[in-house]
Design goal:
Order of helices and strands: EEEEEEEHEHHEEEEHEEEHEEHEH
Strand content: 25-35%
Shape: globular
GO molecular function, one term: methyltransferase activity
Radius of gyration: 20 Å
Keywords: Methyltransferase, Transferase
Structural class: alpha/beta
Number of strands: 18
Organism: Cardamine amara subsp. amara
Protein name: S-adenosyl-L-methionine-dependent methyltransferases superfamily protein
InterPro entries: Lys/N-term_MeTrsfase_sf, SAM-dependent_MTases_sf
Length: about 350
């Protein structure tokens, strides 16, 4: 996929004659530099259709000639409003997408034709199994199961427990039911429709790893900006277990009044979620930033910095070099960064 950003869709009308459109007509701009704690998503040019014979009106932001992407015909499979979200499932010839809330951000993608690699931050999740104990992995913010699908392909013996607060009919529209069937190695996905952050004594010391991908309105959940919440989540880990977190972009990248890309070792300090994690687990949080072509997402990892050389040998070849980009959060540079800004 191309650089990650919000969907540029001006309106999605009813996909059937008896359902009215609830989506706002606001167009969201592609995010090349993400100035807030937004969740970057797939950048896709759509020509939405109600059917093969009835095109739907679409308005897109003008882009520079060198940034133009080939338009891909798309159509709405279903659009509903739940207690928690505005939910839209969009189909293209090559993929199916789950869009949530008013941002129209892509929260899951299922590629057709059996290719589970996405070329974006979801791929990072498959690097977790080699650096945690044997045991189940929880996914908080399952969505349509993009990460779960790739993990079970590459690590087919792993037991996954996915948590999603919304009943999004993902079993029907995004193939989650396939992941509930045990693989040839016994791994499978168990789905919980509930609030993953509610305290539960049953989860104490249960998980070898926890993947956190929780957003609302394009932002990391407010509960995850609090140290006590992370300390509570850590109690759910086995000894030597780890938490991997999608932390989205950074709060501000401004220098002399102009947006700038901050790519040095201090960049993590501009991400509020990583800062909270480093307060909760001093000296035990690592971070990396996905390459520019993948949207400049921040990803964090608890449990200290793994042996990068050893880790590189244990992950799929596709990730063997990128895992070497992980760095330990160095708080010694904090005062320097604050003085500079």
């Amino acid at each position: 996929m191309a650089a990650l950003s919000s969907m540029a869709i001006s309106c999605l009308h009813s996909h059937s004659c008896n359902k009215s459109c609830f989506l706002s007509p606001q167009v969201s701009k592609p995010l090349l530099i993400n100035p807030s704690q937004k969740k970057p998503r797939s950048s896709i040019s759509f020509c939405i259709k109600k059917s093969d014979h009835d095109e739907m009106q679409i308005q897109q932001e003008p882009v520079k000639e060198e940034e133009e992407e080939e338009e891909e015909d798309s159509w709405v499979v279903t659009a509903v409003r739940s207690r928690y979200n505005e939910i839209v499932i969009v189909d293209t010839v090559s993929s199916r997408y789950l869009l949530l809330d008013s941002t129209r951000n892509v929260h899951s993608v299922v590629n057709k034709g059996g290719q589970n690699w996405t070329g974006s931050y979801w791929d990072e999740s498959v690097s977790l199994p080699p650096i945690i104990p044997n045991g189940p992995i929880a996914i908080y913010g399952l969505g349509g199961g993009t990460s779960a699908r790739l993990i079970l392909e590459l690590w087919p013996s792993i037991q996954l427990e996915g948590w999603e607060i919304d009943e999004i009919k993902a079993r029907d529209y995004l193939g989650l039911s396939e992941l509930e069937i045990p693989t040839s190695k016994g791994g499978r996905l168990c789905i919980h429709v509930d609030d993953a952050l509610l305290p539960s004594q049953d989860d104490s010391g249960k998980y070898a790893g926890i993947i956190v991908d929780l957003f609302t309105d394009g932002k990391v959940l407010e509960q995850l900006q609090q140290v006590p919440m992370w300390l509570e989540l850590a109690t759910r880990l086995m000894p030597n277990g780890r938490i991997m977190v999608n932390c989205a972009g950074i709060e501000t990248e401004v220098q002399n009044g102009k947006p700038q890309l901050l790519l040095d070792d201090s960049a993590w300090m501009l991400n509020s979620t990583i800062k909270i994690l480093s307060e909760a687990f001093p000296g035990q949080v690592s971070w990396k930033r996905t390459p520019d072509s993948k949207g400049l997402n921040f990803v964090a990892l608890t449990g200290g910095l793994p042996d990068l050389s050893d880790w590189s040998k244990k992950v799929p070849v596709r990730l063997s070099e990128t895992v070497k980009l992980w760095k330990l959060c160095n708080t010694l540079n904090k005062s320097v960064l604050l003085n500079a800004t």
